[in-house]
Design goal:
Helix 2 packs across helix 4. The chain has a two-stranded antiparallel sheet with strand order 1-2. The protein is mainly α. Helices cover about 70% and strands about 0% of the residues. It has one domain: Arp2/3 complex 21 kDa subunit ARPC3.
Length: about 200
């Protein structure tokens, strides 16, 4: 806990993308690349009936994009991804359109992606992605944010279902997968930092 507290109190430090983002063109390219990476992550989709929300690689994408790009670029990449989905089938299960974004079982999760990408980026800007434990904790926290928004959206989409149904089908069945994704992200980011330091 003291390690996490020290991370929160730390001044801003560079994120991985800062080594490359020395012009607005490169910043734009990083944001676009982050959005494309999110498209790929969201196509990893597994249906888990009776839940209307599939298991996807999207939450892992949010964690990696936010950490690598930082808060502002991360949330910009996520916003671009969501905008792309208005016109292209880039949401999970190849869905697209305004109705999917704002009026579906996934709508709350999409909003959670935006908030979580900023939060993860904020932690990364304080060195939170450079060690396994701090990265793991920040990624768990980010997923809780996504689930909080997701559950609210799922209840709005399924008003006749009980809250126990919503929590089970919108959160409980995803817990193990969420822990695995947090661990994958927490292994990936410190490893990426070590690789970046070796190549400088």
């Amino acid at each position: 806990m003291s390690t996490l507290s020290n991370t929160v109190d730390s001044p801003r430090v560079p994120v991985l993308a800062d080594s490359f983002a020395n012009s607005w063109v490169k910043n734009a390219a990083l944001i676009f690349g982050g959005a494309l990476f999110m498209v790929l992550c969201q196509q990893i989709s597994i249906a888990v009936p009776p839940s209307p929300v599939p298991i996807t690689g999207g939450t892992l994408g949010v964690m990696l994009i936010g950490s690598a790009l930082g808060s502002k670029r991360g949330v910009s990449a996520m916003a671009l991804y969501l905008l792309m989905g208005l016109f292209l089938p880039v949401y999970s299960e190849h869905r697209e359109g305004l109705d999917v974004l704002v009026n579906s079982a996934s709508s709350g999760y999409f909003l959670g992606f935006l908030v979580a990408s900023y939060v993860v980026g904020w932690f990364a800007e304080r060195g939170g992605d450079r060690k396994f434990m701090t990265a793991f904790v920040s990624f768990i926290f980010a997923q809780l944010i996504i689930f909080a928004f997701g559950l609210a959206g799922l209840k709005l989409d399924q008003p006749n279902e009980s809250w126990s149904w919503v929590i089970h089908n919108g959160f409980t069945i995803f817990i193990i997968g969420g822990l695995v994704k947090a661990a994958i992200g927490a292994i990936t980011m410190p490893a990426a930092w070590k690789l970046a330091e070796k190549t400088r």
